[in-house]
């Protein structure tokens, strides 16, 4: 069985929601106040705040307070565990597909004999 990593699970949970992915896409451009992030979603501020809390708990964003304004910024290095896991999975599946290809090619050669 695969080793369970709660941090990786939190990261993928945060990335699973399209609203949160949209917020991350916006934050990839530049840090932004919560109100600017909420505006294009069409969601009420408390709902957006819950999405931001999930992103912050997963480590994907960091927030700071400037007076009465909360500024959110993306944390690019927080994506590394997901990238590493996906790279590992790609390597496993490419190996499996290469072995399958080798097997099929061998079967085809054997059939031609």
Automatic annotation (TrEMBL):
<feature type="domain" description="HTH arsR-type">
    <location>
        <begin position="1"/>
        <end position="93"/>
    </location>
</feature>
<dbReference type="Pfam" id="PF12840">
    <property type="entry name" value="HTH_20"/>
</dbReference>
<dbReference type="InterPro" id="IPR036388">
    <property type="entry name" value="WH-like_DNA-bd_sf"/>
</dbReference>
<protein>
    <submittedName>
        <fullName>Metalloregulator ArsR/SmtB family transcription factor</fullName>
    </submittedName>
</protein>
<dbReference type="InterPro" id="IPR001845">
    <property type="entry name" value="HTH_ArsR_DNA-bd_dom"/>
</dbReference>
<dbReference type="InterPro" id="IPR036390">
    <property type="entry name" value="WH_DNA-bd_sf"/>
</dbReference>
<dbReference type="InterPro" id="IPR011991">
    <property type="entry name" value="ArsR-like_HTH"/>
</dbReference>
